[in-house]
From TrEMBL:
<feature type="domain" description="Acyl-CoA dehydrogenase/oxidase N-terminal">
    <location>
        <begin position="11"/>
        <end position="121"/>
    </location>
</feature>
<dbReference type="InterPro" id="IPR009100">
    <property type="entry name" value="AcylCoA_DH/oxidase_NM_dom_sf"/>
</dbReference>
<dbReference type="InterPro" id="IPR009075">
    <property type="entry name" value="AcylCo_DH/oxidase_C"/>
</dbReference>
<dbReference type="GO" id="GO:0050660">
    <property type="term" value="F:flavin adenine dinucleotide binding"/>
</dbReference>
<dbReference type="Pfam" id="PF00441">
    <property type="entry name" value="Acyl-CoA_dh_1"/>
</dbReference>
<dbReference type="InterPro" id="IPR046373">
    <property type="entry name" value="Acyl-CoA_Oxase/DH_mid-dom_sf"/>
</dbReference>
<feature type="domain" description="Acyl-CoA dehydrogenase/oxidase C-terminal">
    <location>
        <begin position="233"/>
        <end position="380"/>
    </location>
</feature>
<dbReference type="InterPro" id="IPR036250">
    <property type="entry name" value="AcylCo_DH-like_C"/>
</dbReference>
<dbReference type="InterPro" id="IPR037069">
    <property type="entry name" value="AcylCoA_DH/ox_N_sf"/>
</dbReference>
<feature type="domain" description="Acyl-CoA oxidase/dehydrogenase middle">
    <location>
        <begin position="126"/>
        <end position="221"/>
    </location>
</feature>
<dbReference type="InterPro" id="IPR006091">
    <property type="entry name" value="Acyl-CoA_Oxase/DH_mid-dom"/>
</dbReference>
<dbReference type="Pfam" id="PF02771">
    <property type="entry name" value="Acyl-CoA_dh_N"/>
</dbReference>
<protein>
    <submittedName>
        <fullName>Acyl-CoA dehydrogenase</fullName>
    </submittedName>
</protein>
<comment type="similarity">
    <text>Belongs to the acyl-CoA dehydrogenase family.</text>
</comment>
<dbReference type="Pfam" id="PF02770">
    <property type="entry name" value="Acyl-CoA_dh_M"/>
</dbReference>
<keyword id="KW-0274">FAD</keyword>
<dbReference type="GO" id="GO:0003995">
    <property type="term" value="F:acyl-CoA dehydrogenase activity"/>
</dbReference>
Amino acid sequence: MDLLDDSVVPEHARDVKQQAREFAAEHIEPNAEEYYRTGEYPWEILEAGMDAGLVAQDISEEYGGKGYDLEQILAIAEEFYKADAGIALTLQLASFGCEIVEQYGSEEQKEEYLRPVAENEQISGLAVSEPETGSDLAGMTTTAEKTDEGWVLNGEKYWIGNGVEADWVTVYAKTGDKEDRYSNYSMFIVETDTEGYEAEHIPEKMGMRASKQAHIVFDDCAVPEENLIGSEGGGFYMLADFFNHGRVVVGGHGLGMAAAAIEEAWAFVHDRSAFGRDVSEFQAVQHDLADMLIEFESARALNWRAAEKVAGHDNAGYWAALCKTKSTETAVQCAERGMQLHGGRSNLTDRRIARVYRDVRIPVIYEGTNAVQRNLIYRQRQ
Ligand SMILES: Cc1cc2nc3c(=O)[nH]c(=O)nc-3n(C[C@H](O)[C@H](O)[C@H](O)COP(=O)(O)OP(=O)(O)OC[C@H]3O[C@@H](n4cnc5c(N)ncnc54)[C@H](O)[C@@H]3O)c2cc1C
């Protein structure tokens, strides 16, 4: 059963999708259980992904990447997340801080910071969320104060992918106190070896254990003036635009995981007997599988439609929120059904279905919780 067939994928994204599929089968899937169990950072697989030209290639050719567009990145995401979400997140986040630099940064910033990531010599991160809030983007408290030499950052960030491993991170910080609370934030490039940047891994997670997030503390962390990205006060709007792309890709995380849950449940019920019959022969079981397929195919059609809308700047915020919500919740539903169909074996921690069940709890939260997405969907339709 090829759930991630390429008939909905635009022609130009099919080759890279196939490459991602082959890479995932060779490097991600066979190692997923071990990395989940040890919770170690999958450096070897990250390096293999770099060698295969599948990491950080959203950076444009001008700065050393392949310039993969949204649809190509979505195609890679579906394949990687089906193989394992934790390892996939690590591979995807290597360039997480780059898009904002590429969109809004100066020529010098792009040359200095994007090229080493595109050439796989460095990795980056994006630091937005804080210990006290991840949802209220205009309520964050990390500050950047202007001095004669540049900017001094103080505050904390939480949940930051690669906060320990990255060479530099793009940081969202408060630079103003205007009544219009959306104009008070700016973006900065911060090298992780700067004095006053301290990061430690957050405690062990339940899901996506092969990815690592950090608690970062900025304690009088001084960066030069030229590390401000774009214009002062423009940070909130840069993020809003960035999230439109990101949420289409997070929809792909959901699709990959939903496909994994269906595949796993399907195989299990066709290989197990009860009451002298194959479990898959019970109509109730067939209906469960049918429901999973209905949700999955609906989510996938929506997600690829949204990718086209967002790429074409056509009511992007609306479509991004729609598909992020639908695809990630489809993953939750499929994992839940898949667990039930596995009977008692669903509880064995080394089972793929149990890993997917734990992983699906994360994309309904990151890049804006699904409650926040519903706020956006409603507001943008008024
Ligand atoms: C594995 C993982 C990786 C992550 N990686 C990164 C990263 O690399 N960089 C980064 O910056 N962040 C990252 N995050 C953080 C993530 O984006 C936040 O966790 C998320 O935005 C939610 O913020 P919060 O956890 O502070 O929850 P809160 O904002 O405190 O929300 C708590 C609850 O309140 C609800 N809520 C809040 N506001 C509203 C509202 N207006 N309407 C309705 N309900 C509301 C939420 O839906 C949620 O149910 C990551 C998170 C995880 C789990």
